[in-house]
Amino acid sequence: MGYRTDPLDDNFWISPHYRADDWRRLNLNNDDNADWSTAVDIFYDRIYGRFLAPIEAIENHPDEYIRWFSGFTILAIDCLIVETLYQFYNGVDETDIDHQKAFWHFFRASTYFRQHFTRKTAYKFYTHFRNGILHQAQTKMSSKVRIDKDKMVQPVDLTDLNQGLIIV
User: Fold this and answer.
1) 113, 107 in Cβ contact below 8 A?
2) Please, how many CA atoms are within 13 Å of residue 167, restricted to the half-sphere of its CB?
3) Distance in angstroms (rounded) separating the CA atoms of residues 12 and 21
4) 120-141 exposure pattern, b = at least 16 Cβ within 10 A, e = fewer
5) Which of 64, 92, 161, 168 is close enough to 96 for a disulfide, judged by CB 3.0 to 4.6 Å?
6) What percentage of the chain reaches a pLDDT higher than 90?
């Protein structure tokens, strides 16, 4: 496909179909500029190419064991997506507040996720899943990734949320 380039070349691929110069050429100084449509296309191509297409490839893998045990990997990618979308939405190059708060803000702002996460479960998700996967390559406490549950987020122990969450 021709993605290999000189490492010193600053016109690198930023997504499967766009290079850095494609983004740099955009004039996004006013809201009604036609370049905004291209910016959205580049943004979508970047998110889809980096995150969503690999998730689809895992979910559609012909080996059922890879599909069955892929939740952990997909959740790791999901955590990357949360932070990436938070940064894009807030127009920052890095998460500009406590990362734990960034996850809560992301879940709370989402019409889809807000019904599944409270502040407390968002913080548990951040600590047990995001940090556990990133730093120890495992979930913390008794938290689990499952595909056989009905609810997206549920406590491992109904009497003690500190024990962890089950994420579907």
Assistant:
1) yes
2) 25
3) 8
4) ebbbbbbbbbbbbbeeeeebeb
5) 92
6) 70
Main-chain phi, psi angles of 94, to 5 degrees:
-135, 160
- What is the mean pLDDT of the segment spanning 47-62? 96
Residues 44 and 52: their CA atoms lie apart, in Å, by: 10
Q: How far is CA 124 from the centre of its chain?
A: 17
pLDDT in tens, 18-31: 999 999 999 999 88
CB neighbourhood size of 95 (10 A)? 18
The tokens of 7 are what? Answer: 């490492």
pLDDT of residue 8 exceeding 80? no
State the Cα–Cα distance between residues 144 and 7, nearest whole angstrom.
40
Q: Report the distance separating Cα 18 and Cα 45, nearest Å.
A: 8
User: What average pLDDT does the segment 109-121 reach?
Assistant: 94
